[in-house]
Amino acid sequence: MVLFTCKSEPKPDFTTMECNDPPVPIIKQCSETLSTTANRLKTADPGWKYGKRTSETNRVAVECNFYKKVTNSGIFRHKQHLIGTCKDVTRCEQCSNAVREEMNKYVDEKKEQKRQALL
């Protein structure tokens, strides 16, 4: 079952079910909203300066700009690759110390923000 909604303003009169716009699936509207939110979040994370998404279909695959390694676990795993302290992730040997410090500082700040939110 596909639900439909009307995009026109003012809201349609549901007693007569009249609307000037063709019906648009709600699922399509939600996916458009999610994609714009994802793009906004993508640019806010400093990990995206040093990596890029490899395909639109695989949203968790990130390729390192230095090492050309593809991590299939998202931007957090990519940042661990850049920092190089996690034992489960290959360290990026071509990454500069300044980038490592930037990523480590960002990850530590986020951890502290989450810890403070839980208190």
Can you describe this structure?
By secondary structure, the chain is mainly alpha-helical. The chain has two domains: 1-44, no CATH class; 46-119, no CATH class. A hairpin with an 8-residue loop joins strand 3 and strand 4 (62-64). It has helices at 26-44, 75-83, 97-118, and strands at residues 4-5, 24-25, 51-53, 62-64, 70-71. 42% of the residues lie in helices and 10% in strands. Helix 2 (75-83) packs across helix 3 (97-118).
Features:
two-stranded antiparallel ribbon, three-stranded antiparallel beta sheet, 5 strands, mainly alpha, globular, 3 helices, 119 residues
Please outline what is shown here:
The chain is mostly helical.
List the helices and strands and how they pair.
Blueprint (H helix, E strand, L loop, with lengths): L3 E2 L18 E2 H19 L6 E3 L8 E3 L5 E2 L3 H9 L13 H22 L1
Antiparallel strand pairs: 1-2, 3-4, 4-5
Count the beta strands: 5
**Rg, nearest Å:** 21 Å
Widest sheet: strand order? Answer: 3-4-5
Q: Given the C-alpha coordinates, what overall shape results? A: globular
Largest sheet: 3 strands, antiparallel
Order of helices and strands: EEHEEEHH
Total domain count: 2
Q: How many H/I helical runs?
A: 3
What proportion strand?
5-15%
Question: Helical percent range?
Answer: 40-55%
Q: Specify the structural class.
A: mainly alpha
Q: Uncertain runs with pLDDT below 50, 5 residues or more? A: 33-38
Question: Mean of the pLDDT scores?
Answer: 77
* Distance between the amino and carboxyl termini: 43 Å
